[in-house]
Amino acid sequence: MHEMSIATNILEIAEQSMDGHDQLLSISVEIGELAGIEFEALEFCFEALKQSSRYPDLTLDITRIPGKGNCRKCGVSVPMKERFAVCPECGGYTVEPSQGQELRVTSIEVE
Prior knowledge:
Blueprint: H1 3-16, E1 24-32, H2 39-51, E2 59-65, E3 67-71, E4 77-80, E5 95-99, E6 103-110
Parallel strand pairs: 1-2
Antiparallel strand pairs: 1-6, 3-4, 3-5
């Protein structure tokens, strides 16, 4: 379960960006559906982690980025639900992900 280490890293990134503020209220992240992360497991780990942190009321807002790729065979941009997808246009196995692999902290709210 690597989601616990991801949750820990998200919290550490937010704490390092507080610039002297005392309260961390919320963290917003963008996570791609092809990033290899179980969203429910990440939310569970984050809930457990924040209870033992200085910020038990902290919220995590996750924006899911849909998977998308380009077929190298026919050149069409297609939606992707998994990393190794078949092109729905030509049946080729050469769809290369162009979106949906990201994981980034986009904002934090402090007081």
